[in-house]
Amino acid sequence: MNIVNLTQHAATPDQLAAGVHDLPEMEKAVLAELLTFHSIPSHEEVQRRAKVLASLAKVSGYQTAMIGGAPYLMGPLEAALRARGLTPVYSFSVRSSEEQLQADGTVRKVNVFKHGGFVQTV
Questions:
Q1: Which residue, among 14, 13, 113, 7, has the nearest Cα to 66 in the 3D structure?
Q2: Please, what are the domains in the chain?
Q3: Residue 34: DSSP 8-state
Q4: For residue 8, what are the CA distances in angstroms to 4, 68, 69?
Q5: 9, 67 in Cβ contact below 8 A?
Q6: What is the pLDDT of residues 39-94, one digit of tens each?
Q7: Is 41 exposed, middle or buried (0-12, 13-18, 19+ CB in 10 A)?
Q8: What counts of helices (H) and strands (E) characterise the chain?
Q9: What is the pLDDT of residue 21?
C-alpha cells in the first residue's frame, strides 16, 4: 500500500515499512503551515485548508492519505480527500509500558507507541 503522510510528524520506521511516504521538504513546509492554527479558525478557513490539503495529496500521486491533527479539521479533510477520489486513513498505535533499569539502580517507566496498522472511517 502506498500512503502519503498528511500529518505534522515524520513517518515512523514501522509506518515507512507499511508503505507511508513523507512529502518532499518543500511540500512538508506547506503541510505544516496548513495544519497549524494560531487562533480559532472560522468554518470557511477550516474548509479552505481541508481543500488545499486534499489537493496537495492528490498531486502527490497517492490514492491513500494518512491524516491526523486538529479534530475539527479531520472531518472536513476526510470529505475533501474523498471528493478527490482519495482514501483517508488514521494510524493505529499499540501502546505499551516498559520499565527501564537505570545506571543508578532506579527504574524508569516509559510509554511506547508502536504502529499497529491503519483505520479507515466510513
A1: 7
A2: 3-92 (3.40.50)
A3: H
A4: 12, 8, 8
A5: no
A6: 999 999 999 999 999 999 999 999 999 999 999 999 999 999 999 999 999 999 99
A7: middle
A8: 4, 5
A9: 97
- Determine contact, residues 76/108, Cβ cutoff 8 Å: no
* Distance separating alpha carbons of residues 107 and 112, to the nearest angstrom: 15
DSSP codes, 65-95: EE--S-HHHHHHHHHHHHHTTPEEEEEEEEE
CB 77 within 8 A of CB 51: no
Distance CA 3, CA 65 (A): 5
For residue 95, what pLDDT is reported?
A: 86
Residue 27 CA: distances (Å) to CA of 8, 35, 71, 92: 11, 12, 22, 24
On average, the pLDDT of the chain sits at 95
The amino acid that residue 20 corresponds to is V
pLDDT at 55: 96
Helix (H) or strand (E) holding 48: helix 43-60
How far is it, in rounded angstroms, from Cα 90 to Cα 115?
Answer: 11
Q: What single letter denotes the amino acid at residue 29?
A: A
